[in-house]
Specification:
The structure holds two protein chains of two kinds.
Chain A: E1 4-7, E2 10-14, E3 19-25, E4 32-38, E5 44-51, E6 56-59, E7 62-67, E8 72-77, E9 86-93, E10 97-99, E11 103-108
Parallel strand pairs in A: 2-11
Antiparallel strand pairs in A: 1-3, 3-8, 4-5, 4-9, 6-7, 7-8, 9-10, 9-11
Chain B: E1 4-7, E2 10-13, E3 19-25, E4 32-38, E5 45-51, E6 57-58, E7 67-73, E8 76-81, E9 90-100, E10 102-110, E11 114-118
């Protein structure tokens, strides 16, 4: 059974810092991996999708990497802004999506 | 990306009543939709896979008689919480599944969610 772990569970940093969120998964037989953002009480916003054959994807200040063999993915946020404050979820697609519990990120103005 | 809507966005009901949540795929026909549930401070958990024209597939521990799923058309799936109780209060999110060429390029697009509060 696939298990997804996200570290840290919570993170608070000053505005402007670069930061890394980590996601690990136990079964490397995946199709792709997605990073989502969830604002309080809201649905999910898809940030980046990395196919199993890819190593990384970039969108604006966001960069996601994937090391399928080691079961790890990272989400790199450059020059963080208060508007980046949210919960970031990693989801692994091995036929169905398995979600991590998320990293609650607070960017201090 | 695909556009997915859910209705209602928020519902408050009395214990014992039934609540229907609609999930619509607005810009493509979805043969497969998924229903998730998220309790406070928990991750999303898949409840069931909704297949157009056939019975839904439920995850272990999800009562199929309590959570009725109907996927009568390629653009609409409904989740009915029957005889709702306070412990059913949760955030329900649907997603549509789109296959693009090969299975490694499938992707899910999520609705905005429905917050159910059972008094």
């Amino acid at each position: 059974k696939q298990e997804v772990t996200q570290i840290p569970a919570a993170l608070s940093v000053p505005e402007g810092e670069n930061l890394v969120l980590n996601c690990s998964f136990t079964d490397s037989a995946i199709y792709n991996l997605q990073w989502f953002r969830q604002d309080p009480g809201k649905g999910l916003t898809s940030l980046l999708l990395i196919q199993s054959s890819q190593r990384e994807q970039t969108s604006g200040r966001l960069n996601a990497s994937l090391d399928k063999s080691s079961g790890r993915s990272t989400l790199y946020i450059a020059a963080s802004q208060p508007g980046d404050s949210a919960t970031y979820l990693c989801a692994v697609n091995g036929g169905g999506l398995t979600f991590g519990k998320g990293t609650h990120l607070i960017i201090q103005p | 990306g695909a556009v997915v809507s859910q209705h209602p966005s928020r519902v408050i009901c009395k214990s014992g009543t039934s609540v229907k949540i609609e999930c619509r795929s607005l810009d493509f026909q979805a043969t497969t939709m998924f229903w998730y549930r998220q309790f406070p401070k928990q991750s999303l958990m898949l409840m069931a896979t909704s297949n157009e024209g056939s019975k839904a597939t439920y995850e272990q521990g999800v009562e199929k008689d309590k959570f009725l799923i109907n996927h009568a058309s390629l653009t609409l799936s409904t989740l009915t919480v029957t005889s709702a109780h306070p412990e059913d209060s949760s955030f329900y999110i649907c997603s549509v599944f789109r296959l693009a060429g090969s299975s490694s390029y499938n992707e899910q697009f999520f609705g905005p969610g429905t917050r159910l509060t059972v008094l």
